[in-house]
Hints:
CATH class of the largest domain: Alpha Beta
Shape: globular
Strand order of the largest sheet: 3-2-1-5-4
CATH architecture of the largest domain: 3-Layer(aba) Sandwich
CATH topology of the largest domain: Rossmann fold
Helix content: 25-40%
Number of helices: 9
Strand content: 15-25%
Oligomer: single chain
Amino acid sequence: MAELPGPDAAEVPESHAAADVPDDLAGPDAAAAAARILESLRGSRGTVELLVVSDSEGRAAGARMLVRPDAVEGSLGDPELDAAALAAASRERLARGHGGSLHNLQTPAGRRLQVYAEGHRPRQELIVVGAGHIAQPLATLGTLLDFEVTVLDDRPEFATRERFPEAAAVRTIDFADPLSGIDVHAGCHFVLVTRGHKYDYECLRRLLARHGHAQPAYIGMIGSRRRVRATFIQLEAEGIAHEVIAHVRAPVGLDIGAQTPAEIAISVLGEMILERRGGTGAPLRTRERIVERFLAKKPPTGSVK
């Protein structure tokens, strides 16, 4: 059977309805596909490219489809195969990883295709607002995780290349307009760790008030329960919708008992990885239960038989 669309299947624009599928495949060639992918990434949108590796009927081998959030370009020449390919594209997009994967598709009539799906994501940026002690391990570890790291602070003595040698950019800003010159897009991950609540609040308010613009992939703010509660109440009073506030990771990070700046950075970046890759955050030992499932149970030493 074909891989059929599930609840996470990519949406198909009306222009790509089954009745409109042409007999002769019409899709971008390699050069055109590359140009469209670059255009999409410049607009901070992800794209999945589908390439037919093999076709039992030989008609679609080499055909391409591009799946973007707002459009689908190309066809495999069969409505059922198109739907299955779109489902594969959706799963590739959800994986949010590098590289791609092979998918085997088959129609009820027995036609078989092997399709390579490759996701192309906008550049992933980590923007650390605040250049204190936590910012340093965040920048170091973020670089190791392939983020393009930018560090912002209003103190020139803190926002220096010497303190953040791995960062792509270190900038001195004015917290009256903290996002000035920052290209906020769907690949941005903001961590607000400034020296004062009012600075964190101003950055957060401006990020959440971007109506009609691309929203960051992640917004996290450090702070105690009391501080976070006060922030959220004030944001709601200023008209920020509850569902928008609910996307903020605050207090930021996973509960691993972190105390030192480096431990807090690991906690925060661990939450970003969980958000990007998926998972539960539970220990793998607990999930797999290898001891309980595969090792023979032995009676206690010295027990009476």
